[in-house]
Amino acid sequence: MTATPDEQPAQQDSTVSDATLSARLPQRSRPATLPAWSLARERIAPYDLVQFMMDGVADFCALYAAVELGIFELLAHEELTSDELADACEADPATMRRLMRWLHGRDFVGTYGGRRYQLTELGQVLTAGAERSQRHAVLVTGSSYWMDAIRDLTGTICRGHPAPPSGLSPYDHLARHPDLSRDFDLFMTARCAALGRDLAASSDFEHVRTVADLGGGLGGVLSEILTAHPQVRGILADRQDVLDRARDRLADEGLADRVQLTPGDFFDRVPGGADIYLLSSVGHNYSDAQVVELLIAIRETIEAGHNPTTAEVWIAEGMLPRLPGAASRWHSTDIRMLALFPGDGVRQSDDYCRLIRQAGLHVRKVSPLSCGQTLMTARLAEQ
């Protein structure tokens, strides 16, 4: 029987340089999860595939526990044994060893010197300092509100709409829970970075002076565009409590003087004066009728503006595949939206084309982005 790291005899520590230590960091020798879903269906027996899906519930809960306990943050600074981790986390040593055994088996951690754990490349993604950290995504997804909503999926399907666990919508719940709201902000910021870079590279912005990001949160997408194109100014429209947090973030990035913060409900009032009106990951929260209503409000703002023939609407969303039964990660996103929001969820590009036409707009281009989302651009319909 192979001994676990804490059961192996201690080895004498030796002083090594940072470069040497980096070279010795454990590398991932195999994927920690199954390959793409389409490949998994071809390679794994049906019984085993269903078992894998059920195991995923326990796996995520174990990952959430490790993040919530701060294990990844502790190992980001030094190598530790499971007993040392248990002491730092005020946890039971025996159960901590079992959790670390799971993390080791899933390649989140490796060992150096026989007893001490250290982060692998996969584990580093769960630290707060990672470039695209998943730490805050795990904390939000594993929070009681999100988990209770998913557990009530049967009820949601029978009722035809979700029943918020706390009686509050997700955003109202976040407004009343500052710690969770902060995690959600950082979750969205990490997710927005790649999309923002893709959008910034999708056009030369030569004739663009102002981009209005409707429902843009902390301005993660907008800030990427403004950083890449110094001549562009921004309008960020969202709830007042969100903009209060966005103000500090934009100031930290040196963009505060280039962004106009517009609080309120953009269904009631769309800020004017923009060359591009951006809806990024907004539509999946709302029903078809609400999306059309919002697009009509944008169209009317464009018609009343200074540039009705050139102003554009940009819709950036994850899209379901057009081929029925085709595998896509956006199916999982759609189920999460079903559990959380009473809207129509993730759509196909054809659905958005239909909604855009209903709003009196004309689709100019549909472009896949490297981040996995799709960009649809539209203008006023030709008369």
TrEMBL record:
<dbReference type="InterPro" id="IPR001077">
    <property type="entry name" value="COMT_C"/>
</dbReference>
<dbReference type="Pfam" id="PF08100">
    <property type="entry name" value="Dimerisation"/>
</dbReference>
<dbReference type="InterPro" id="IPR012967">
    <property type="entry name" value="COMT_dimerisation"/>
</dbReference>
<feature type="domain" description="O-methyltransferase dimerisation">
    <location>
        <begin position="54"/>
        <end position="127"/>
    </location>
</feature>
<dbReference type="InterPro" id="IPR036388">
    <property type="entry name" value="WH-like_DNA-bd_sf"/>
</dbReference>
<dbReference type="Pfam" id="PF00891">
    <property type="entry name" value="Methyltransf_2"/>
</dbReference>
<dbReference type="GO" id="GO:0046983">
    <property type="term" value="F:protein dimerization activity"/>
</dbReference>
<feature type="compositionally biased region" description="Polar residues">
    <location>
        <begin position="1"/>
        <end position="20"/>
    </location>
</feature>
<feature type="region of interest" description="Disordered">
    <location>
        <begin position="1"/>
        <end position="25"/>
    </location>
</feature>
<dbReference type="InterPro" id="IPR029063">
    <property type="entry name" value="SAM-dependent_MTases_sf"/>
</dbReference>
<dbReference type="InterPro" id="IPR036390">
    <property type="entry name" value="WH_DNA-bd_sf"/>
</dbReference>
<dbReference type="GO" id="GO:0032259">
    <property type="term" value="P:methylation"/>
</dbReference>
<keyword id="KW-0949">S-adenosyl-L-methionine</keyword>
<dbReference type="InterPro" id="IPR016461">
    <property type="entry name" value="COMT-like"/>
</dbReference>
<keyword id="KW-0489">Methyltransferase</keyword>
<feature type="domain" description="O-methyltransferase C-terminal">
    <location>
        <begin position="167"/>
        <end position="361"/>
    </location>
</feature>
<dbReference type="GO" id="GO:0008171">
    <property type="term" value="F:O-methyltransferase activity"/>
</dbReference>
<keyword id="KW-0808">Transferase</keyword>
<feature type="active site" description="Proton acceptor">
    <location>
        <position position="284"/>
    </location>
</feature>
<protein>
    <recommendedName>
        <fullName>O-methyltransferase domain-containing protein</fullName>
    </recommendedName>
</protein>
